[in-house]
Amino acid sequence: MMQKKRVRLTLLINLFVYCCFSGIAYSQTQTIPLETKHHALVLQVSDQQDVRISYLGRRLNRVAEYKSIPDTYKQSTDYTGLLNSAYTPSGSRNLMEPAISVTHADGNQSLDLRYVSHEIQQLEDGISLLKIALKDPVYPFEVTLFYKAYFKDDVVEQWSEIKHDERGAVTLHKFASANLHLKASAYWLRQYYGDWAREMQPEEEKLTHGIKVLDSKLGTRANLFQPPVFMVSLDRPATEHEGEVLLGSLQWSGNFRTDLELDPQNNLRIISGINNYASDYSLEKGEVFTTPVFMYTFSAQGKGLASRNLHNWARDYKLLDGHGQRLTLLNNWEATYFDFNEEKLKALLKDTKKLGVDLFLLDDGWFANKYPRNGDTAGLGDWEENRSKLPNGIGTLVKEASANGVKFGIWIEPEMVNPKSELYETHPDWVIKQPKRDEYYFRNQLVLDLSNPDVQDFVFGVVDDLFTENPDLAYIKWDCNAVIYNAYSAHLDNQSHLYIEYVRGLYKVLERVRAKYPTVPMMLCSGGGGRVDYAALQYFTEYWPSDNTDPMERIFIQWENSYFYPAIASANHVTDWGKQPIKFRTDVAMMGKLGFDIVIDHLNDNDLAFCQQAVKTYNGIKGTIWHGDQYRLTHPRENSVASMLFVDKAKEKGVLFNYLVNNRYDEGSHLPIKLDGLDPERNYRISEINLYPGTSSPIAGEQVYSGDFLMKIGFNPQVRKARESVILQLEAE
Ligand code: DGJ
């Protein structure tokens, strides 16, 4: 009897799962769960054919029970279920913030979207794609929703495709990528603001009813005031280890907009996409508008796990060469600014070798002749070597670098132009500016109109010419220092397409660069950290978090970035910013991809010896930092000592960075700091590394503890005023 019952139940479940995953359209209510390892997004099709999100949260043990999740929205004839619509249309039965809003070819502004069909495809091992087709019952207008689930990382990417078959163009007023719904007793938003040299300043607050908008209208360098990354904790603020939290971001290198609407029924609606500010999009019949991707990860074990999931996902699927190597370097920007010549650079190449890093990076100022680039007021756009600074060209320097046993990289800012340049004189129509208004500058420059294919060819040509003339060039730093003022394109018929077409144009160029030069490392820089997102990082191996390299500030900036981006992508340079000694500055820069931007000649013997040894030490631990798991142990905003741990995937090696961030009362680490991510059964030998010449460590002798002990009791790195920065190495025995 029992046996029979079990068989029936199994059959029922199988039938349910089949219905869920087979892609068959039903007129009855149906449930469409999308699961990752620990998380589920559940969509429900109502008998009205509305597609709603009925659940986003922890995965259930039994798939069959997703259909029993109660609708958290009050449903009645007055509330037709559009409050938790999977893609909220406007102008018909919905009065909440829409995901999509249109004017049809006949001038009508109403849109309704009903379920047509769905299918789930297994794209590759561990990645599935759910597609849901929606259609307006009155107009030939269709939207397909895409949900791509990365099983092991608990990451979901969402986007949509919009198309129609109307008798003329349809205007899209809003066209979000994602429309999510969360249900909790309260919601805490962690968001970021910033400015030049003050990137990634966090604020965390409880959301109140109404709409909170995170957005950018800067066009290029979109992150300058506000990056697209955010976190939402459910019920209570999540910590590193505890709490339910969603980390999300739009993958788009231009204007973005994320609405977080706490609705009257205490549900949180998250709608994210390209910012529709000044961007009505005229969609032609048959044209498909594909939104950028919104991605999120959901963790029920706090922010730490969420961030490690994102790091793994980024290294596996997004960041260019995420599992590869990176080049340590010496950059000349702060060492010389614009004041250099061939002789000086040749000396710097020797310094690069002396320091022991892999590459010399020549920064801004190497180009332009009619209006030489001797400052930031002229020359941008004229990408031929400046003859008085570099009479023998870049080629000679590349060869000289090679003779010194180092590689050579170069800075470019190909999207921009100074009005004082030959490029501007020849192609004023390539520049974004209003025809009837005064020009308005950001860092004395203007933005080129990348919506124009001729400009795309030009920008691609800047990169291509450099590599064609110097095939041994090993690295590019791609800068972007201005925002878009006076948005107007001489190329486009429809001006409200400019912000979108600019970014599309940028991606077309980057696609071409990567098709021809797939592996060359490139740094994504934007007057500091003005442009960092996962769409751009598909083309770049690393990003520049901030021009602020004061190590104390960098601890905070790198800390916040580390929630969203893996350390291998964070380009950190040792400079003369800040009051801390060279050891402190170097230790902080080591928590990512190490570089230097100092005058080697100015270092005293001990400082030089320290830096040379530090590069060697770094070469021994960089694999753990780049490819391991990152654990934020003690937060610099809440403790006197900030501690960050990296553990390799085999749990055999660890690197623990510790910094005194508050020394008002010499508040060092008086107590042990609990470690994380170790194998409890293994013993770890702890030793201090990267010591300054002539100093010794109080952490000496036999320091062997089990992973269990280190995670439950901890270890005191003995950080105090005389030891403001301490790096410990862990080696499993
Ligand atoms: C801004 C960047 O952030 C700096 O590192 C440097 O490359 C300058 N631009 C050069 O103009």
Structure characterization notes:
By secondary structure, the chain is α+β, with helices and mostly antiparallel strands. The longest helix has 23 residues, at 605-627. Bound molecules: (2R,3S,4R,5S)-2-(hydroxymethyl)piperidine-3,4,5-triol. (2R,3S,4R,5S)-2-(hydroxymethyl)piperidine-3,4,5-triol is lined by residues 333, 363-364, 411, 479, 481, 525, 527-528, 544, 547.
Global outline: globular
Count of helical segments? Answer: 12
Ligands: (2R,3S,4R,5S)-2-(hydroxymethyl)piperidine-3,4,5-triol
Query: Level of helix content?
Result: 10-25%
Structural class: alpha+beta
Tell me the distance between the termini.
Answer: 56 Å
> What is the count of β-strands?
36
Rg over alpha carbons:
27 Å
Question: Which stretches of 5+ consecutive residues score pLDDT under 50?
Answer: 1-28
Which percent range describes the beta-strand content? 25-35%
Give the overall pLDDT as a whole number.
94
> Describe the biggest sheet?
10 strands, antiparallel
In short:
The protein is an alpha+beta fold and 733 residues long. Strand 26, helix 8 and strand 27 form a beta-alpha-beta unit.
Write the layout of secondary structure elements.
Layout: H1 2-21, E1 30-35, E2 39-45, E3 51-58, E4 100-103, E5 114-124, E6 127-135, E7 141-150, E8 155-164, E9 170-175, E10 178-183, E11 187-193, E12 201-206, E13 210-215, E14 230-234, E15 244-251, E16 256-262, E17 267-274, E18 281-283, E19 289-290, E20 293-299, H2 302-318, E21 329-331, H3 333-336, H4 342-355, E22 359-362, H5 393-403, E23 407-412, E24 416-417, H6 422-426, E25 446-447, H7 453-469, E26 475-478, H8 498-516, E27 522-524, E28 542-543, H9 551-561, E29 571-574, H10 582-589, E30 593-596, H11 605-627, E31 629-634, E32 641-647, E33 653-660, E34 683-689, E35 704-706, H12 707-712, E36 725-732
Parallel strand pairs: 21-22, 21-30, 22-23, 23-26, 26-27, 27-28, 29-30
Antiparallel strand pairs: 1-2, 2-3, 4-9, 5-6, 6-7, 7-8, 8-19, 8-20, 9-18, 10-17, 11-12, 11-14, 13-16, 14-15, 15-20, 16-17, 24-25, 31-32, 32-33, 33-36, 34-35, 34-36
Helix pairs in contact: 7-8, 9-10
Bound molecules: (2R,3S,4R,5S)-2-(hydroxymethyl)piperidine-3,4,5-triol.
